[in-house]
Amino acid sequence: MKAISIKEPGGPEVLRWTDVEDPRPAAGEVIVDVVAGAVNRADVAQRMGLYPVPQGASPYPGLEVSGRIGAVGDGVTGWQPGDEVCALLTGGGYAQKVAVPAAQLMRVPKGVGLVQAAALPEATSTVWSNVFMAGALKAGETFLMHGGAGGIGTTAIQIAKARGARVVTTVGGPEQAARVRELGADLAINYRTEDFTEHGPYDVILDVIGGDYLSRNIGSLGTDGRLVVIGLQNGLTAELNLAELVFKRISLHGTTLRSRPVEQKAAIVAEVQEHVWPLIESGAVRLVVDRTLPMDQAAEAHRILDAHHIGKILLVNPDAV
Known about the structure:
The protein is of the alpha/beta class. It has helices at residues 41-47, 121-134, 151-162, 174-182, 213-220, 242-247, 262-275, 277-282, 298-306; strands at residues 2-6, 15-19, 29-38, 64-72, 84-88, 97-101, 105-107, 142-146, 166-171, 187-190, 202-207, 221-229, 251-254, 289-294, 312-316. The protein is built from nine helices and 15 strands.
């Protein structure tokens, strides 16, 4: 098969479409013949050498795919070759085939095309596990999403709004602000010209930025607020006033999805299919896809991700569509 390999850390140009060995399913795994994969910030970090591949995972980037089951390993029940699926991965999505634990497979929601389904697993699992499982967002509460125009942001805005929250988000310009308001955001804050701390207090904040946002997030949370940090784009360190954390009874969570054990991922994808899939099938939550590109143009997809986009960028395997 072919896959996008990374010979050495660097810019988008290090992503190469090369011949590699086909994967084989271990016990409890299936092989998915990939129709499409999605591009995530974690892929960029891996390309730059900043996000080590977990032990035993595929060395190729890509944390979510859609496709058809091509082979089934020992002990797998409920799935068979030919089934159309989307899947949450630990790696290997930028390829024509990928091995994945059967527990991380997800059925394709009704009304969603197989290519577009590649936009779902990572974003919905990230949002559900962090905003609702860790952050415990409830109807009537105020939710702040940093980076509302990205794949995580456009998903989080819609799910939070559909479940009755007041939604605030930060974006980088007027075009993004208009788009996220269309998706249900009650307030879009241009972080280049406005200060999000002036619009609190917030009950739950999902932060993909990190760095110096920490103290500002804590300061803008209300009593019993919850901060969930899942990204470090602004840096790895920050100062924190512990008095605010203690006296406001704030809960601080730092999480990552990729390195979780299969059992935890299985629990997350099960809840996603129970709680989020009905919202997608009813039209309350829509897929937001910025564009699709052939998989061998992964380097261009990474350049776009670093520049200007709204929603997900998909890489399509032209031989499988």
